[in-house]
Amino acid sequence: MVRVSPDGAWLSFLAPEEGVLNVWVAPVSDPGAARAITHDRGRGITAYGWVPSAERVLTLQDRDGDENWRLEAVDPTTGQTTDLTPLSGVQAQLWGTSPRHPHQVVVGINDRDERLHDPHLIDIRTGERTRLLENPGFVGMTFDWDLQPVYAVQPTPDGGLVVVRHQDGAWAPVAEVSQEDALTTRPVHGTADGASWYWIDGRGRDTAALVRVDLASGATTVEMEDPRADVSDVTADPATGVVDGAWSTYEASRFVPVGAGGERLGGHLEHLATLGRGEVEIASRTLDDSLWVVAWLPEDGPIAYGLYWPETRHMQELFSSRTGLRGQPLARRRPHVIPSRDGLSLVSYLSLPPWLDRDGRPPEPLPMVLYVHGGPWARDMPGFEPFHQVFANRGYAVLSVNFRGSTGFGKRFINAGDYEWAGKMHDDLLDAVEWAVQQGVAKRDAVAIMGGSYGGYATLVGLTFTPEVFACGIDIVGPSSLVTLLGSIPPYWAPMKAQFTTRVGDDTTEEGRAELLARSPLSRVDEIVRPLLIAQGANDPRVKQAEADQIVAAMQARSIPVTYALFPDEGHGFSRPENKIAFVALAEAFLAEHLGGRREPDDGATAASSVEIR
User: Which residues are tagged catalytic?
Assistant: First the structure.
């Protein structure tokens, strides 16, 4: 997360200070003079950015994983910090910045109604806060370059959306988005002249395209589309907002230039690809577009960063994201397209121990970790993945699968996962395991399943619905009951409840609850015959501690062994450095015991963390 300030004066990045991630800045003219301007000693800072004036750096941080984000502004020169949302028990979301309003930002805050975020105009220097309007039921708003609302999204009871536009002080509907398009259609951003707005739009097509809308006439122009994958990212001229490039990702990322600016951008990316290893990414651009931060992302090495002056094509190397990994034998993360039993194409990524990688195949089958992504409305992407590297280093094959319901592959693929939790979504994982066995990658009797959030649920499903398939499982913050999960979602997710009702199941009817319970691991605890490690954050607002507590209690009541690792100062995942290290230590010890791979000595890692082994 390396950036150049909008005025080109500062370089910024996240790096440890006393072992904890903080924001560092340095003059662009002297990167070696970097210094920390934040001094967190807890979970670390993982989200930050510059305001367009470059007068402040904004950071978002919660407390012990509760996701009640607070927005702070830090002066890069003095390090002085102003808390812009000094409110208890509420969540702040950064919604808008603009070069035309250098001292103000728009922030959504749910202080009036915990279910809804109202937009506030906040002065970054003084913290003065003004509510712009009361949110009548929107789950998101977009703002123009004058920091005025343009679009908002309102969920419908059938799982769809209505996009409304703000004109003359009132909201009016401009687009109805059906449930099948709701996860692939949204307004993104507008141009500086106020004439156009860009959308990612899946209506009338399978994969979502980049579409430009003329606000005066309503006319639309398709700027970029890919028949295999949704548009996943766009980049725009910083001064005009006109998009000059877009990406889609099937197995690998694909760049497509957009408009006249795209031809220039594409030429530079082709040149930059010759200067480093891995996919090229523009991480940051100055407001006048005279200086970029560029990143090279290999799948078997740390990210490398450089400064690039497009006018002269001069590139200055900076540093890598993890200097300790430079020159180390790291695993390649190779893409594979695995067929499902009913004909879907499952884009997957396989890593092997580098000393056993023979052009993507091991000399003999290995114990394997099936690492399942969360969401489930997310996806595994190409590139460096820490757990793949750790477990490949310990001697395992590691496989990640984009099962049906994953995003990025078009709406038919997403919607094929509706009501298929513990059904065809799990079948896709089983098909991937069978593929790995048939390819000579995995030992049939030595496959572990592991994941976080939905991946944790998939782990519990694996050990309860198909108890003989997996040798063991590691559940990280996974729900054990779909009934209690849907009944305890955070208040600010309430407007989006229909998305769960129409894709997972209806917890408001007796019949719906019975169906949800039937697809819940908690209802099949008696089937567990393989070792299970459960790791949970006590402050998780999405998958609450009760999800772990109840399945652990059910297993203990039946004298079924389980290892329960509770982190009292974490939420939906683990952020504190000592806790992340402790979890890896627990996980590799667990896998070593049940799959036979290598492990490093604990050397006090768990004792140094907050973990409670129950």
Answer: 453, 540, 572
Q: Which helix (H) or strand (E) holds 13?
A: strand 10-17
Instruction: Label residue 68 exposed, middle or buried (CB < 10 Å: 0-12, 13-18, 19+).
Output: buried
CATH topology of domain 333-613: Rossmann fold (3.40.50)
Strands 314-320 and 292-297, sheet pairing: unpaired
Residue spans of the domains in the chain: they are: 136-242, 333-613
Q: By the 8 A CB rule, do 504 and 535 touch?
A: no
Residues of the chain scoring pLDDT < 50: none
- Per the structure block, which two tokens stand in for 532? 């299970």
Please give the pLDDT value at position 307.
Answer: 97
So what's the pLDDT on residue 260? 85
Question: What pLDDT shows up at residue 168?
Answer: 87
155, burial (CB in 10 Å: exposed 0-12, middle 13-18, buried 19+): buried
**How far apart are alpha carbons 402 and 35 in whole angstroms?**
40
Whether 344 and 405 have beta carbons less than 8 Å apart is answered as no
Task: Look up residue 153 and give its two tokens.
Answer: 């999204």
Task: Give the model's pLDDT for residue 1.
Answer: 86
Determine how many CB atoms are found less than 10 A away from the CB of residue 99.
14
Which residues, 6+ apart, have CB-to-CB distance to 112 below 8 Å? 118, 131, 134
**Residue 223 CA neighbour count, 13 Å, CB half:** 33
